[in-house]
């Protein structure tokens, strides 16, 4: 199960180059349900995602490079390319009444910096272990608008955008 919140980012962190990142390329074979192929650095996957905006079923299947490119050639729409930075969020905030996490609790911000034709779009995603935690999450001050429930910021929808 994938449970994540998604936010617009207006300004990149000053120390972005300090964090590890992955180069991601992904193409969509279908958008309802979502069937996508992804190249993440030198790793290749096919992913099935069920319906939902914040919480949905997700299954990954490893591919080899040949299979990835064979399937990518069959994809519809835009191929999405981005750099994903992995930024630790130590001591994340949660709404009052949500159980306090352990002192060493850390979430990971996946900061996606999109390449053309989607640049200068930058999105932050944060994954959670439960919908209750996702609903209680208080984002850092540098996060912008919560776009979790806006379909136009989901990669599968973006893949169908006409430029």
Write the element-wise H/E pattern from the N-terminal end onward.
EEEEEEHEEEEHEH
Strand order of the largest sheet: 5-1-10-9-7-2-3-4-6
Oligomer: single chain
Average pLDDT reading: 96
CATH H level, superfamily name: Hypothetical Protein Pfu-838710-001
CATH topology: Hypothetical Protein Pfu-838710-001
Overall body shape = globular
- Biggest sheet architecture: 9 strands, antiparallel
Low-confidence parts: none
End-to-end C-alpha gap: 32 Å
What is the helix fraction of residues, given as a range?
10-25%
Total count of strands? 11
Strand percent estimate: over 45%
The number of helical elements comes to 3
CATH class: Mainly Beta
Structural class: mainly beta
Rg from Cα: 16 Å
Under the CATH scheme, the architecture is Beta Barrel
Count of the domains: 1
Write the layout of secondary structure elements.
Layout: E1 2-8, E2 21-31, E3 34-40, E4 43-49, E5 55-56, E6 58-63, H1 65-72, E7 76-90, E8 93-94, E9 106-114, E10 122-127, H2 131-136, E11 137-138, H3 155-158
Antiparallel strand pairs: 1-5, 1-10, 2-3, 2-7, 3-4, 4-6, 7-9, 8-11, 9-10
Describe this protein's structure:
By secondary structure, the protein is mainly beta. It contains three helices and eleven strands. It has helices at 65-72, 131-136, 155-158, and strands at 2-8, 21-31, 34-40, 43-49, 55-56, 58-63, 76-90, 93-94, 106-114, 122-127, 137-138. The strands form two sheets. It has a nine-stranded antiparallel β-sheet. The longest helix has 8 residues, at 65-72. It is globular, with a radius of gyration of 16 Å. The model has no long low-confidence stretch (mean pLDDT 96).
């Amino acid at each position: 199960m994938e449970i994540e919140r998604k936010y617009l980012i207006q300004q990149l962190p000053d120390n972005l180059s300090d964090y590890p990142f992955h180069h991601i390329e992904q193409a969509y074979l279908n958008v309802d349900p979502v069937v996508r192929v992804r190249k993440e650095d030198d790793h290749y996957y096919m992913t099935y995602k069920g319906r939902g905006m914040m919480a949905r079923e997700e299954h990954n299947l490893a591919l080899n490079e040949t299979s990835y490119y064979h399937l990518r050639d069959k994809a519809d729409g835009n191929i999405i390319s981005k750099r994903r930075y992995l930024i630790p969020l130590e001591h994340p905030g949660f709404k009052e009444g949500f159980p306090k996490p352990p002192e060493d609790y850390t979430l990971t911000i996946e900061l996606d910096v999109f390449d053309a034709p989607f640049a200068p779009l930058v999105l932050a995603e944060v994954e959670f272990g439960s919908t209750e935690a996702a609903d209680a999450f208080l984002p850092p001050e540098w996060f912008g608008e919560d776009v979790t429930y806006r379909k136009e910021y989901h990669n599968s929808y973006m893949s169908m955008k006409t430029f």
